[in-house]
Amino acid sequence: MPDTQTKTPKYLFSKGIDDYFNGVYKAYKFVALFFRQAFTRPFHLREIINQCFEIGLKSLPLITVTGFIIGIVFTKQSRPSLEDFGATSWLPSLMGIAIVRALGPLVTALICAGKVGSGIGAEIGSMRVSEQIDAMEVSAINPFRYLVVTRVLATTISIPLLAFYCSFVGLLGSYVNVHGEEATSFTTYFTNAFSTIKFLDLFTSVIKSLVFGFTIGIIGCYKGYNATKGTQGVGKAANHAVVLAMFLIFLEEVVIVQIANWIRYF
Q1: pLDDT in tens, 68-122
Q2: Residues sharing a CB contact under 8 Å with residue 258, sequence separation 6 or more, in sequence order
Q3: Which of 14, 73, 114, 121 could pair with 237 as two cysteines, CB 3.0-4.6 Å apart?
Q4: CA 98 to mean position of chain CA atoms
Q5: What is d(CA 72, CA 66) in angstroms, rounded to the nearest whole number?
Q6: End-to-end CA distance of the chain, in Å?
Q7: pLDDT, tens digit, for every residue of 14-70?
Q8: Which residues contact 246 (CB under 8 A, 6 or more apart)?
Q9: What DSSP string describes 23-40?
Q10: Cα–Cα distance between 142 and 71 in angstroms, integer?
């Protein structure tokens, strides 16, 4: 093994490639292990419910404020463009499509990636470096099933519910702006907002939210479960969990939207 001073660019490049594919393989094994463990007993339902409370209910205040502000701001930004064409009556329909189809799930996923993903990575990472996970293995407790499976299932369940709640709050914020400008009634606004939303839009939002929730949970658990180097490793695990989860969320958004557009056109 060459020392630091004699390492050539070719060696460093080769080592980087090896590390990359080794990381991909470890991630694949981690995901495969999750699917094997998720359908075997015990299911730890109490811990899943507890994690749903931690992930879902405790995220409601942040989701509420963010969704409401996004609804108001996006409506304000869209109004001048529609006014140029004399089509302000289409504003509720535009908001319904934009928020339910795209903004609701995406904003919820990004918020939870920062709040939940980092929390999971830091929590499991601290348990790894403090040898609590090793102690669970000695005590005949399956730490992967208790720590990883429960949290991934909780994020997969909670994120879709939060996404629909965020969409509703966003539409409510949009209604406040429209009502203030045009005195539109509550019933009229929501009737027009949902008039252009199709079943495919709702189905796509559900699928996106499920995928986003699974991604946030599995990335946070993977980074935390494989944390090393003490407290510094815990910080890196939390940071990497947020960055990688957000990157994958944007990538998944592009892929799912493209597939949905193909289905819509056919």
Answers
A1: 999 999 888 888 888 777 777 788 888 888 898 888 999 999 999 999 989 998 8
A2: none
A3: 121
A4: 18
A5: 10
A6: 57
A7: 776 777 778 788 888 988 989 988 888 878 889 899 999 988 888 899 999 999 999
A8: 110, 113, 114
A9: HHHHHHHHHHHHHHHHTS
A10: 44
